[in-house]
Design a protein that fits this description.
The chain is an alpha/beta fold. The protein has helices at residues 28-41, 62-75, 92-96, 98-102, 133-138, 149-161, 174-184, 208-222, 236-245, 269-282, 290-297; strands spanning 7-10, 45-48, 50-51, 58-59, 79-82, 106-110, 114-115, 144-145, 165-170, 193-198, 226-231, 249-252, 259-261, 264-265. The protein has one domain: Alpha-Beta Barrel (TIM Barrel). The strands form 4 sheets. The protein has an 8-stranded parallel beta barrel with strand order 1-2-5-6-9-10-11-12, surrounded by 8 helices. Strands 3-4 form a two-stranded antiparallel ribbon.
Length: 307
């Protein structure tokens, strides 16, 4: 099959808080609607977190996650990636629980520990909707997003047991070395799919030069692999456009960036999908359908999930 570009939409995440945008989906129905809209706009995959529908706080609740992914599946055949990053402060057991329960086609697997600092965002919230928001953001000043080698082994072993493809979230170049080591140890198996996540405070800065460096490093250490790029905040479209031009796949969505352009809030992840789709197509490339993405990434198929 000719190379096609996979667009992933990361719908709500565990970073932004409700006070930052009125368009951030919080309830299961809002998340479902945003994911289906992203699919209709051209996303082949969606990346799913859950939130407490009353407060908008990131939630590990299996029932809420199941409600979301079942609702999406009932309306379209988009490939669904369930997070194992979860929300700040969740335990390993909470983060992995959805994989054996729902056996998704894709699941995120963070490829190393990192300072994941959201504290500066607290100063931009003057009138929080919920009392958890500012302490949640400020608490990251003294927090490590922990993903040890033992933890990564636990995640990928659980995923392989459930025929779920790991999507390795790489926040800095050293994490590529982690993946390579675990591949050589036999813990990680091919095919390998990497999501380069750039611009997180604590991770690698979001520059085209750094993206090119990480792609080259991954090629040197891993050989064949599939990859995509996500970038936080204002770097989202410049970095994903560069990734598409380099032959990679792309991720947009309200998890990564709340804006469509400077000063203009995105009203949905679908708006961002349409924007990156236009860029990809202007580069002369075609976007992948969900089934084409499954073929490219070697996914098991939507008929083999447990939701």
């Amino acid at each position: 099959m000719a190379k096609k570009t996979i667009i992933t939409a990361a719908i709500t995440g565990g970073i932004h808080t409700p006070s930052m945008s009125p368009y951030l989906p919080i309830t299961p129905q809002q998340i479902i609607d945003d994911a289906v809209g992203a699919y209709q706009a051209g996303a082949a995959a969606v990346h799913i977190h859950a939130r407490d529908p009353e407060t908008g706080r990131p939630s590990p609740d299996i029932g809420i996650i199941r409600q979301i992914v079942s609702g999406i599946k009932a309306r379209c055949n988009v490939a669904i990636c369930i997070t194992t990053g979860g929300g700040l402060g969740m335990t390993i057991e909470q983060r992995i629980a959805g994989i054996p329960d729902m056996k998704p086609e894709l699941a995120s697997c963070n490829a190393g520990s990192v300072n994941f600092v959201l504290e500066p965002a607290a100063a931009r919230i003057t009138n929080p909707k919920f009392d958890w928001e500012i302490p949640y953001l400020k608490g990251t000043w003294d927090m490590i997003f922990q993903n040890t080698f033992k933890g990564i082994e636990y995640y990928v072993t659980t995923m392989y047991e459930n025929h779920t493809c790991p999507e390795f979230e790489v926040y800095d170049v050293g994490m590529i070395n982690n993946v390579a080591f675990l591949l050589n140890r036999g813990i990680i198996k091919r095919p390998i799919y990497i999501q380069f996540v750039m611009g997180i405070l604590g991770g690698i800065p979001a520059t085209v030069e750094n993206l090119a460096f990480m792609v080259k490093t991954a090629k040197d250490l891993l050989g064949d692999f599939n990859w995509s790029c996500a970038a936080a905040g204002k770097a989202q479209f410049s970095l994903t456009a560069a990734a598409a031009a380099m032959g990679g796949n792309v991720r947009v969505g309200l998890e990564d960036n709340l804006y469509l352009r400077p000063g203009v809030l995105a009203k949905s992840s679908a708006e961002q999908v349409l924007q990156i789709r236009s860029i990809v197509e202007q580069l002369g490339q075609e976007i992948a359908s969900p089934d084409e993405a499954r073929q490219i990434l070697g996914l098991k198929g939507i008929d083999k999930v447990a939701y």
